[in-house]
Amino acid sequence: MSGVTPRFGGRVAVVTGAGAGLGALYVAALAREGAAVVAVDRDAAGAERTAAATRAAGRECRAVTADLVRADEVARMAEAALGWQGRIDVLVNNAGGGSSETASATTLAEEDAASWDALVDANVKTAFLCTRAVAEAMKRARYGRIVNVSSRAARVKDAVVPQSPAYTAAKAGVMGLTRFAARELGPFGVTVNCLVPSLTLSGPVLEAYWERWGEAARERYLQQVALRRLPRPEEIVSALLFLASDESSYVTGVCLDVNGGSFMA
């Protein structure tokens, strides 16, 4: 409808882990609602694909390649975002996850120090470094929205889905970081919240993973979900947009579970 200001009109958003999956969808949704978006990923081709698709839709988007476990590259990423638009209003700490190589252990005995370090760095260290890198600009502006992405794995020990001790601990660490940062940054008008989604088929890799379970395992998993289905990707995206927008202006330090009722606090 003409004359209506987009929800993120005039805002600048940084999305990490933006090269594929939900990260790419977050970029598209924020841009669609008016934000100029910096799509960050350590995979240069993935970041550029996301940015190119967003620009093709007539939106503003810039790709930045950075290894977010390195403080110098995080600082360079933040400088690039500030240099492009002069501000950062929204940070989505989506980088992380767990690859089959680093999250293959399912018991304490199987977990080793290397995989532990890799998963904690990828999930917690990246969120910490990126939050620290944008905090001063947000404090000066007296405005900011930071959304960290955790996982249902940090909430429950699933009877169906194999879970890595390191991944579980890392995603719980993201929740703790959220609460700490919300306390520190709240007096400056900056909210910090955590999105906690369950398994979402947001791309070919996860779709293939789901198919490999087999019908019986898929059915057992869905029996744990009150709504008896997986989320649609857009349902996760809509929750992210709420936390990143002014609609959540009096919400901070919250971990928002989007899991169809498979975990109820």
Task: Please characterize this protein's 3D structure.
The protein is an alpha/beta fold and 265 residues long. It has helices at residues 21-32, 44-56, 71-85, 113-141, 165-185, 204-213, 215-223, 233-244, and strands at residues 12-16, 36-41, 61-65, 90-93, 144-149, 190-197, 255-258. α4 (113-141) links the parallel β4 and β5. The radius of gyration is 18 Å and the shape is globular. The model has no long low-confidence stretch (mean pLDDT 94).
List keywords for this structure.
single chain; 265 residues; alpha/beta; Rossmann fold; 7-stranded parallel beta sheet
Indicate the topology.
Elements: E1 12-16, H1 21-32, E2 36-41, H2 44-56, E3 61-65, H3 71-85, E4 90-93, H4 113-141, E5 144-149, H5 165-185, E6 190-197, H6 204-213, H7 215-223, H8 233-244, E7 255-258
Helix pairs in contact: 1-2, 1-8, 3-4, 4-5
Overall residue-averaged pLDDT value: 94
Rg from Cα: 18 Å
Oligomeric organization of the protein chains: single chain
Task: Please count the beta strands (DSSP E, at least 2 residues each).
Answer: 7
CATH topology: Rossmann fold
Taking the alpha carbons of the first and last residues, their distance comes to: 39 Å
| Major β-sheet annotation | 7 strands, parallel
Shape: globular
> What top-tier CATH class fits best?
Alpha Beta
Instruction: Count structural domains.
Output: 1
Low-confidence stretches: none
Beta fraction: 5-15%
CATH architecture: 3-Layer(aba) Sandwich
Structural class computed from helices and strand pairing: alpha/beta
Continuous helix count: 8
Strand order in the largest sheet? 3-2-1-4-5-6-7
Helix and strand sequence? EHEHEHEHEHEHHHE
CATH superfamily: NAD(P)-binding Rossmann-like Domain
